[in-house]
């Protein structure tokens, strides 16, 4: 072997020895002149000895670790009550289902059933404020009411409200008519033709 090559190897080994000579993970305790104690993984001096640390204590538990999966996060979200924005999206089709727009009621003794609903089931914690001719009355989230009204034109709409009585969504207004047959005239569709009944 060439003497020049050997000397290059020797110099390289001498340079690498300080970094290879000590195993990783050694901890050194350093106490300065004021008595302050510092622990380090860097060898403070050539004669410093690493500390002998006791092994770590590990306690086995029968409890499963807390879940950090996406499923756990979804469960936490489902426990929280829906926000007004989520409720508006869920019940955007909330409407008066009965009576129909421009419907006319004959001979009902001035009573009309007003019903409301949505394609999604309305939970019991939500309520409805029903407005008939501008006057409001509280009602349950699911259902209907029977109203006794005077003859003529009427308007009805409803507001779906949350537990804090905040308006979530308002239904379109429905206009309907109540008409009664007069005792002085014959019923519609029955009339005189050519002077004969």
What's the layout of helices and strands?
Blueprint: H1 3-20, E1 28-31, E2 37-40, H2 70-79, H3 84-90, E3 95-98, E4 103-106, E5 111-117, E6 127-132, E7 135-140, E8 143-148, E9 152-161, E10 167-170, E11 174-179
Parallel strand pairs: 4-11
Antiparallel strand pairs: 1-2, 3-5, 5-8, 6-7, 6-9, 9-10, 9-11
Radius of gyration: 43 Å
Detail the poorly predicted runs: 190-197
Q: What's the CATH topology label of the domain at 84-179? A: Immunoglobulin-like
Can you tell me the CATH superfamily of the domain at 84-179? Immunoglobulins
Mean pLDDT: 77
**What global shape is seen?**
rod-shaped
* Number of helical stretches of at least 4 residues: 3
Written overview of the protein:
The chain has 197 residues and is an alpha+beta fold. It has a domain at 84-179: Immunoglobulin-like, CATH 2.60.40. It contains three helices and eleven strands, in the order αββααβββββββββ. It has helices spanning 3-20, 70-79, 84-90; strands at 28-31, 37-40, 95-98, 103-106, 111-117, 127-132, 135-140, 143-148, 152-161, 167-170, 174-179. A hairpin with a 5-residue loop joins strand 1 and strand 2. Mean pLDDT is 77; it is low at 190-197.
In summary, what is this structure?
The protein is an alpha+beta fold.
Entry keywords:
single chain; 197 residues; alpha+beta; Immunoglobulin-like; 6-stranded mixed sheet; 3 helices; disordered C terminus
